[in-house]
Amino acid sequence: MAVVAAVYFVLAVGAAVMFAKGMDRNLQGPRLRALWAEGLTAEARCTAVRTEEAQDAEGGFIVHRRPTLEFRTGDGRTVVFEDRQSRLEPAVGDFVTVHYGAADPEKDVTTRTPSFLVLHARAVITGVGSVFALITAVVLALVL
Prior knowledge:
The chain is built from three helices and five strands, in the order H-H-E-E-E-E-E-H. It is of the alpha+beta class.
């Protein structure tokens, strides 16, 4: 019955790898890692804050604050964008650090700072899934 445990282990590790890849994409890992690796930063000034109301799954209202930020790139271009991804809530006139891409700073920009989870999400999820798969496969091999 060790064959059943081995097959389970291989399938479970494959599922962990696929889940990790999908979760990494949902966290925008590849895009954020590329921006952080490029190393281009600037100080952006909040020029406006727009509020947006939404409903959550239970029907309650949620208010999102969407700051409009303006910064100047290293080559002198002025970029204005609305930050929809960050949890920062700057007031008008506040400054925040942005990471941007040189090729297209209007689209490739974030106020998110490098974090362990985003930098290593794929490895952590794959590792935890693989350890769980190994423990389960060993138990299966002993029980069957």
